[in-house]
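Action item from last week, closing it out:
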Amino acid sequence: MKIIECPRDAWQGYHPFIPTEQKVEYLNTLLRVGFDTIDFGSFVSAKAMPQVSDTEVVIRQLDLSGTSTRLLAIVANERGAQQACQYEQISYLGYPFSISETFQLRNTNATIEESVGRVEAIQKLCRQHGKELVIYISMGFGNPYGDPWNAGIALHWVEQLAALGVRIFSLADTVGVASTDNIKTIFSQLVTSRQDLEFGAHFHTTPAGWYDKVAAAYQAGCRRFDGALFGYGGCPMAQDELVGNISTENLLDFVQENQELMALDYDTLGEAKRLFSSLIIS
């Protein structure tokens, strides 16, 4: 089982700017914990996401020596991907591909058709620079905006993007509307039919709703889960303060309950939690 720790998602909607040196200290601590991947920053418009506008400064100060943890950065277009590809430290580029036309326009200022072209261009850059593209299928489990949605639409777009060479997909419950039935249906079909691909879950949920969603995905074969310490953050475009990320603490409890092996440094994790509290919560 993989846990992708997502500090970028946790703090991108937090309005008071977190000083760069504090982000660096926090991320360098997370790098020593032993997570599979850290979603650490974004190469997007500073106007759209001012909190992560210092990503290029941050990455130059990260210490990856002695860790197997890999870095993931979010991009929204080819220009952002070109910037991200300049950094050897970055292993993964993540692109949010919404299967809701309304939300795709809202989130990346592009239609779904335009986004397919962006994925193709970003995938080409990834191949040229030794990166791997992670596609986030946002609105993957439902759509509150009135656009057509069913499990077949989600599956269709995974197949279309896999044909471009994408091999990692994280299905996102962007606004916390996923039902356990939809989660089971989508993951069981994907995991069974496309064993050549890796599928993950990026759930946004109320604090009380996390377990059933994680359990449904796990039982259907998903072994990659995104989380954030304290369950902080979520999608700033969704505008729902009650819906946040799955807390990493809850995911770790789930790992132990299901006897999954995960070699983490829990003392350093405690240090990271204290640093995070000093950044945002206290």
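Closing note: Residues 28 and 275 are 11 Å apart (CA to CA).
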